[in-house]
C-alpha cells in the first residue's frame, strides 16, 4: 500500500487568519522595540530657594554654682521653667540619699508616654539634621539624651521619696531658684560671650566643650551645676559673605527655617562686625527659645524665595514656534480667521478654524506645524476694512505636551521660579495646564500630534 500525502487545502479563512497573525506579530514587535513614552501627573507644589548656615546662639544666661560639696540630684527637667523658690536640686553631703536612690533605681523604671515622645523627638531632629561635617553633634545629642533619661528617673523617684527622706531624717541641702527662668544643665563657658566678640575660630569648635552635670554626680564647692535663661529674647549670629550680605541688603527681617524641628518663623535681621573684623549676620527672635535652650550651635535655612503653583519637571518643557496673527483678525463669532482664497472665478475668502495656543497684548499664537490650515505666505483679511495680513511672522512659546486625550497637545506655561529639577508654573492660565493633567516627561521624545500615547 502506498500512502499519499494529504493535499494542503488553502482557503480564504486560512489566508485571513494568517494576515491577522502577521499583523499582530508585527504590532507586538514594534511595540516592544519602540521607545516608551513616560508621563508625569501635574500636581500643586512649591519651590523654596534657601541659603543654609550654621550659627551660634546667644541668650540671657546666668550660671549657678554650688555652695557645698556632695552628690547632686536634680528635681527639674531640662528646658522647664522655674519660678522663684522652685526646688532645682539637692546636695547630699553624706551619700545616704544617693544610696537610697540607687536602691530604688535597681527596680524596673517605666518612662511615661510623654517622656518617650520627648526622646523620640530629639532623635528624629538629630537624624534629620546630622551631617558628617558636624560629627561632634553626636556626642552633644548623646549627653542630652543621657541627661534627660536620668532626669526623668531621678525626678519621679525623688517625688516618691520625699516622705521617706523626712522620716529617715536624711540631712541634705536643697537649692531653689532665686529668680524665674528656663533651666538648663548644659554649661559650655560661652554664657558670658556677646555677639560682638564672635570670631571665625568659634565656628570651627576646636576649643568648644560642653559639660552636662548629671544626677548622682559628685560636685565640689563653687562648681557650676545649672544655669537659668531669664529672657525670652535670643539671637543667632552666623558668618556672612559679601555676596550674601548684598542679597539681604535693605532687609530688616528674614524668614528662617530650622530643619528637624518643623519650625519656620521670621526674625529681625541686622549685620555686625566680629572681634576678628569679619562681617556677620544677626537674627533676633522673641519666642521659641525653649526649643534651643540646650544648644549653642544650630543649623538653619534662610528662605529667600518660596513660590507656589503647579510643579512640573524641567525635562517636560520645550520651546515651540507659532504663527503670530494680530488679534483684530480673529472672528470671535465664527471662531476662526478669514483667509483669502483664489479660484478661476477670482479671489475670495473663507473662514478657517485654527488652534490658538496662546496670546499676548497684540497677537494670537497659531499652529505653524505641517498640518496647519495656515501656511507661510497666506493672506488673512480684516472683515470690516478689507485690510490684508500675510502669514509668516513667528513667535516662540514655552510649554509642555499634554496627553490627556491619548495624543500630544501643546500647552503653554508661565514659569514663576525653578530649581535644578523642577519648574513652578502659574496656575489657572489661559491655554495652560490644570492639576492632575498628564504631560510627557521628556518633551524631546515627541512632537505636536505626532505620537499616540498608550497609558
Describe the structure.
The chain is an alpha+beta fold and 455 residues long. 20% of the residues lie in helices and 38% in strands. The strands form 7 sheets. It has a 6-stranded antiparallel β-barrel with strand order 2-11-14-13-12-15. It has a 5-stranded antiparallel beta sheet with strand order 20-21-16-24-25, with no helix packed on it. Strands 6-5-3-10 form a 4-stranded antiparallel beta sheet. The chain is elongated.
Brief summary:
By secondary structure, this protein is an alpha+beta fold.
Q: Tell the overall outline.
A: elongated
Summed over residues and divided by their number, the pLDDT gives a mean of 83
Beta-strand portion reads: 35-45%
Structural class per helix/strand content?
Answer: alpha+beta
Tell me the total number of β-strands. Answer: 28
Main β-sheet, in a few words? 6 strands, antiparallel, barrel
Unreliable spans are none
Helix content: 10-25%
Helix segment tally: 6
- Radius of gyration, in Å, reads 38 Å
Q: Give the strand line-up of the largest sheet.
A: 2-11-14-13-12-15
**Between the first and last Cα atoms, what is the distance in angstroms?**
62 Å
Properties at a glance:
six-stranded antiparallel barrel, elongated, five-stranded antiparallel sheet, 6 helices, 455 residues, alpha+beta
Amino acid at each position: 500500500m502506498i500512502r499519499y500525502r494529504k493535499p494542503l487545502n488553502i482557503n480564504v479563512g486560512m489566508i485571513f487568519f494568517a494576515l491577522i497573525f502577521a499583523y499582530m506579530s508585527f504590532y507586538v514587535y514594534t511595540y516592544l522595540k519602540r521607545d516608551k513614552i513616560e508621563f508625569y501627573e501635574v500636581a500643586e507644589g512649591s519651590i523654596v530657594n534657601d541659603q543654609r548656615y550654621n550659627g551660634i546662639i546667644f541668650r540671657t544666661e546666668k550660671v549657678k554654682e554650688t555652695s557645698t560639696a556632695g552628690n547632686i540630684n536634680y528635681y527639674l527637667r531640662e528646658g522647664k521653667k522655674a519660678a522663684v523658690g522652685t526646688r532645682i536640686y539637692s546636695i547630699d553631703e553624706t551619700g545616704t540619699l544617693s544610696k537610697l536612690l540607687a536602691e530604688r533605681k535597681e527596680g524596673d523604671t517605666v518612662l511615661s508616654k510623654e517622656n518617650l515622645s520627648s526622646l523620640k523627638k530629639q532623635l528624629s531632629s538629630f537624624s534629620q539634621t546630622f551631617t558628617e561635617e558636624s560629627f561632634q553633634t553626636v556626642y552633644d545629642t548623646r549627653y542630652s539624651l543621657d541627661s534627660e533619661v536620668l532626669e526623668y528617673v531621678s525626678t519621679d523617684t525623688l517625688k516618691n521619696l520625699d516622705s521617706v527622706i523626712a522620716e529617715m531624717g536624711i540631712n541634705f541641702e536643697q537649692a531653689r531658684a532665686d529668680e524665674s527662668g528656663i533651666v538648663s544643665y548644659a554649661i559650655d563657658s560661652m554664657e558670658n560671650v556677646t555677639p560682638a566678640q564672635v570670631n571665625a575660630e568659634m565656628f570651627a569648635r576646636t576649643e568648644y566643650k560642653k559639660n552636662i552635670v548629671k544626677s548622682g554626680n559628685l560636685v565640689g564647692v563653687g562648681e557650676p551645676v545649672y544655669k537659668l535663661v531669664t529672657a525670652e529674647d535670643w539671637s543667632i549670629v552666623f558668618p556672612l559673605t559679601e555676596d550674601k550680605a548684598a542679597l539681604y541688603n535693605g532687609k530688616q527681617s528674614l524668614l528662617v527655617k530650622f530643619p528637624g524641628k518643623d519650625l519656620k518663623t521670621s526674625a529681625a535681621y541686622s549685620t555686625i562686625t566680629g572681634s576678628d573684623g569679619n562681617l556677620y549676620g544677626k537674627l533676633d527672635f522673641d519666642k521659641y527659645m525653649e526649643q534651643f535652650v540646650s544648644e549653642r550651635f544650630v543649623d538653619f535655612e534662610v528662605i529667600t524665595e518660596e513660590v507656589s503653583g503647579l510643579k512640573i519637571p524641567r525635562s517636560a518643557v520645550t520651546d515651540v514656534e507659532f504663527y503670530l496673527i494680530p488679534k483684530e483678525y480673529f472672528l470671535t463669532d465664527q471662531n476662526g480667521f478669514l483667509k483669502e482664497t483664489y479660484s478661476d472665478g477670482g479671489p475670495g475668502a473663507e473662514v478657517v478654524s485654527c488652534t490658538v495656543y496662546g496670546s499676548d497684548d497684540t497677537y494670537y499664537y497659531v499652529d505653524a506645524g505641517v498640518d496647519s490650515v495656515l501656511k507661510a505666505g497666506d493672506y488673512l483679511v480684516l472683515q470690516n476694512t478689507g485690510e490684508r495680513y500675510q502669514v509668516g511672522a513667528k513667535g516662540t512659546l514655552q510649554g509642555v505636551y499634554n496627553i490627556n486625550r491619548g495624543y500630544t497637545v501643546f500647552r503653554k506655561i508661565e514659569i514663576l521660579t525653578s530649581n535644578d529639577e523642577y519648574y513652578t508654573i502659574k496656575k489657572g492660565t489661559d491655554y495652560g495646564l490644570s492639576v492632575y493633567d498628564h504631560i510627557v516627561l521628556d518633551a524631546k521624545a515627541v512632537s505636536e500630534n505626532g505620537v499616540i500615547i498608550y497609558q
